[in-house]
Design brief:
Largest sheet: 9 strands, mixed
Low-confidence stretches: 1-8, 10-32, 97-162
Helix content: 40-55%
Shape: extended
Number of strands: 11
Distance between the termini: 35 Å
Number of helices: 18
Mean pLDDT: 84
Amino acid sequence: MEQYTTKSGKPLKMKVKFVDHEKEVVKASEALPLPLYFTNAVFFTLFFSVVYFLLTSWREKIRTNTPLHVIELSEIVAIIAFVASFIYLLGFFGMDFVQSLILQPSNDIWAADDDEDIILKEDARKVPCGQALDCSITKMAPIASPKAAPKVVQKVFEEKAMIETPPPTEEDEEIIKAVVAGTIPSYSLETKLGDCKRAASIRREALQRVTGKSLEGLPLEGFDYESILGQCCEMPVGYITIPVGIAGPLMLNGREFSVPMATTEGCLVASTNRGCKAINLSGGASSVLLKDGMTRAPVVRFNSAKRAAELKFFMEDPENYETISMVFNKSSRFGRLQTVKCAVAGKNLYMRFTCSTGDAMGMNMVSKGVQNVLDFLQNDFPDMDVIGISGNYCSDKKPAAVNWIEGRGKSVVCEAVIKGDIVTKVLKTNVAALVELNMLKNLTGSAIAGALGGFNAHASNIVSAVYLATGQDPAQNIESSHCITMMEAINDGKDLHVSVTMPSIEVGTVGGGTQLASQSACLNLLGVKGANREAPGTNARQLASVVAGSVLAGELSLMSAIAAGQLVKSHMKYNRSNKDVTTVTSA
């Protein structure tokens, strides 16, 4: 018989009990040992019946001039029944309503704590901030044979999780039916129940009943839903699992980094790892941070183009910079205004603010500062109509020339010199073939395609994988993957100089998904977890350099595979599923 053990080797006896809350609270709905719907029906009927009886009785007394304070036994019983039913209905409906009003989260986007609050507050807990996985598993005895394996095991991909979700309780069943019927909004479950895990379970079951589709295979257990409430995801019904591979070590600026990559594309990690090997054997890569500033660009409108131009001249006048900077900086301890670049389109003015953001990616930080400046400008430009705090001149999560030219986030260039014998032995090609392919593919081919910042082989592959692993915003992969790859033969054609220039890498090591346990662990692996208190911003800049170095390795390996004619062969070997796809059907 299989048995769990403690760290000291003693047998561990376990009793599992599923509860909805840490403390058992007696509710009004538990007043009678009857089904919830039946209890409610009884008290509703009793309440309205006694109200009708009392009103009829008092009307008769008024008609016959009988004093109202003279009451009969039946009226006393009716009054007692009225009070009892009123207390029940108030406890069942009224308190939940009042609680939902009190606990309802604010809809004011500026009411949330700023990014730097996460930086400065000490975490008193023993687990990482936003612990998202239940890691409190006791140490098990060595497995002697397949038969001795623990029965409670979660296999992510090939088999279903053997941890079964308990069937819904009678009370949960009533709530599920209400959600299906639309009488209880699905988005309000967390507020009404006060239990995020229970809310996700009820929402999941209601969704399956409404759609008629099974969510079997999408894990529900083993995740801390409290950690994502109000910051990472709304209306959760489970979580997905993505495998994380390690490329490296990558020698960058004299340090070695093991790069975590979350991906479902075969060959990607292996190819990047080969690039890291070639770089390491050639002495490593080096990177330089060119710029570091997040942007936000509101759009405002005037009655004339002349007035829009006047504000442009005011914003770009060096004499006004100190005042504008002081107004902008008062909202944050880390956000510091760097530049304001304006563009006029008819009566409309777009102002692109750039500021430093410490170790945060910084979108909230820069938006707060911009709002302060807009409020300040209303005093001198009362005819200014603020159309939107973002006018797409920023430009966020869209391919845009302004990011490619001016940069956004961290602008990084990374380079390495790959020795000729390493190109031959590790990359299985030669310097001349790589230089020619880079010119015709990454430069000429991309130009013919009209590429915008896409003068590379597959930078977005590496950026996306690292972003998912480290808790970055995956949508910002769009502008973060802007990259131009350059290759040149040096030392009389013997060696290869390769570089990647990436003007808009948008990363942070605090806030958002970086607080979840899995992503936090990957940041810790890179040595950039959380904020750098000695030199704010250092961790985020280091992460941007690692992203660029990983892209350099990925570009080097893929280009070599194409030059050597190995691309199709490797993908057929490592990126093909062995499963019979004809047997896969929709549940």
